[in-house]
Write a structure and sequence with these properties.
Elements: H1 2-15, E1 23-29, H2 40-51, E2 54-64, E3 69-77, H3 85-89
């Protein structure tokens, strides 16, 4: 009975989208004109193309208009190939 309950719990965690593992990274972004809210889809597509990551969310941090750059925190779904020691060192703590 215990094995069945444990298997069921693992299965529920696997299919629940809120339980999936995501990673975050900070990025200095140079195309500051795409940081506007109306350009969110273009920003997400540009980041996906540049990084090759499955980006789920983007948060805009500080902006520096003198250097035309913004700090972004991207949230993405990592692949199995990406799990390495450097991946764990560059993660931001979750809120």
């Amino acid at each position: 009975m215990t094995n069945i309950v444990m298997t069921l719990l693992v299965w529920i965690c696997e299919i629940n989208p809120r339980m999936k593992r995501t990673s975050t990274k900070l990025i200095q972004y140079d195309r500051i004109e795409l940081v506007k809210p109306e350009n969110r889809d273009v920003l997400m597509n540009d980041l996906r193309q540049r990084t090759g990551l499955d980006i789920v969310d983007v948060e805009v941090g500080g902006m520096d208009f003198l250097r035309d750059m913004a700090m972004l925190r991207i949230t993405y779904n990592p692949t199995d190939k990406m799990t390495s020691s450097i991946e764990s060192l560059t993660k931001m703590p979750k809120k």
